[in-house]
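anyone seen this seq b4? input:
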Amino acid sequence: MNISKTVLALYQTIIGEKQKRLIKTVDAYLDINYGDKVYQIIDQVKERNIPILSFGDIADQNNTYSNYTVFGNDQVDEMVDKINEIINNPGFKIEVQH
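predicted toks r here
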C-alpha cells in the first residue's frame, strides 16, 4: 500500500465557510465514519459529481449514486489504488492545510 503524494486531509468535523470551501475544492470524498451520515455534505458532493469511496460495513446501503465506490472491508490496497488513480488525474488539485 502506497499513496504516492501527501495530499490527503481528514476532518472529523467541518462547518460553515470551511465546509463550503472544501466541498468546492475536493477531488474525492471518503465516507469512512461509523457514525451517522451527514447527508447535507454527501448531497453537495454528489451535486459536483465527486467520487465517494467507502468500505462495505460503513457504506450507505441505500445509496444509488453512480460515482460511489464500495470496497470490501479487507480491500484497503484497492482503495489506495483508487485514491492514487484520482490523485494522478491531470485535473487533480492539491490544497495544503496549515
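Residues 76-87 form the longest helix (12 residues). The longest strand covers residues 52-55. kinda curious what u guys think
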